[in-house]
Batch of 2 targets.
Target 1
Amino acid sequence: MSTQLRFRDLPMARESLASVTAVGTDGAVATDATLFYPQGGGQPGDSGVFITADGRCLTVHDTRKGEGDEVWHYLDPEHGLTVGQSVTQQIDWPRRWAHMRMHTALHLLSVLVPYGVTGGSIGAERGRLDFDLGEASLDKAALTAELKGLVAADHPVSSEWISEAELDARPELVKTMSVAPPRGAGMIRMVRIGDIDYQPCGGTHVTSTAQIGALHVVSIKNRGARNRRITLAWDEATEGQA
Ligand SMILES: [Zn+2]
């Protein structure tokens, strides 16, 4: 059974009601709808809690995709939930908020480094993208200053859907070489950041770039002859270490 992906249209929602549709092995529980983002596109799966009608608070350790749009939440195996039961889903918001901020920051990085993206990863503390940079070189301090400029400019972030045919006619919109854009039912989800970025993405984002906050380029490292790995981190996390 497919799960309604509420995190797509309600990226700022932290709590919602859902109904259990399937109970799997290893503590897996699927629901008819979810705010929990399932691991994908370099972004970790959400954690949080399910609260039952009789007040039990069950920890959700991870969230993964199943078949199609089905989403599985991983709880302790003795969760006791059964099909048809209602639960209040609460996301671990500080963690998700950090993922959303870092994810959106990586979109900005892809604007400033206009080369093919060969890989990436999003964490609550750090995020990185690998670029097929060839012979080009980058300056850490200059890139940090440009990144802070795009954050401060407070560009709005929004999403929309276009047809697969429309995307196929404009292959330049796809920046990520290693991950195919999320497809389904002939439609592609596009994420727009002001007039600076427009690319297919199924992840969660903040609604304006100022929400990203203060961050900087930690390192630019060689990953083979052509690839460079650029890692970002929050300014506050490095305070006191310098
Ligand atoms: Zn994205």
Note: Residues 7 and 105 are 19 Å apart (CA to CA).
Target 2
Amino acid sequence: MSGSTGLFITFEGGEGAGKSTQIRRLAEVLRARGLTVLTTREPGGSPGAEAVRHVILSGAAETFGVRMEALLFAAARSDHVEQVIRPALERGAVVLCDRFMDSSRVYQGVTGNLEPDFIAALERVAINGVVPDCTVILDLPAKDGLERARRRATQAETKQDPDRFEKEELDTHEKRREAFLDIAAREPLRCRVVDAAAGEDAVAAEILAIVEPLLPIVAHGAARGRETAS
Ligand SMILES: Nc1ncnc2c1ncn2[C@@H]1O[C@H](COP(=O)(O)OP(=O)(O)OP(=O)(O)O)[C@@H](O)[C@H]1O
Ligand SMILES: [Mg+2]
């Protein structure tokens, strides 16, 4: 985020694309280099937003329509940004966030059929200037991602029911994949598309190659922080 010393990286893409896996791996690598890393996720990431997450993902708000759902996502995002993300960036941390504003553009905007102006207005209010420095879009055919997510669910010790979004039709998931690619094409400076079909190690290496050139920003920021603190 411009104006702060930290680095804000968001991870986007469909279900099962590998967002959580790659955030975990990148956080490990960056911490080993001595950087302060905060990993977080949406919806959720702050106590207020986690409460809203439960309402959204349980499907409790579904009967009230996609407009209300979009407002809930925005409320959760606003709390998450102000309580967690902005303070961490101001402290000079690298913030890795699992889904952010592009998921709203895609899920509520494109496949929820909400007007782009409405989505853009909510986005502006919710992020309040905290724009990601870099957005990694993990790209994978929807059917492969859903297959991965299903396999993950059968392996889990506590079996989870599919959430409100995982239950949707395959062509809806494919539409979302296209919508993420559209965003990347429109914002090539912020967004980087990574082929998520490759093995975990190869995907991790590609992500590190994207992130590495951005790290000097944080290193300088942290050094400045240390100078003023001493
Ligand atoms: N590159 C990969 N190749 C094969 N399997 C992978 C790869 N990356 C992740 N997986 C596996 O696929 C499953 C889904 O990965 P992960 O949970 O990281 O996806 P996600 O994008 O966070 O999904 P969701 O949107 O549902 O949270 C996991 O079981 C993970 O171990
Ligand atoms: Mg995940």
Note: Residues 7-221 form a domain with the Rossmann fold fold (CATH 3.40.50.300).
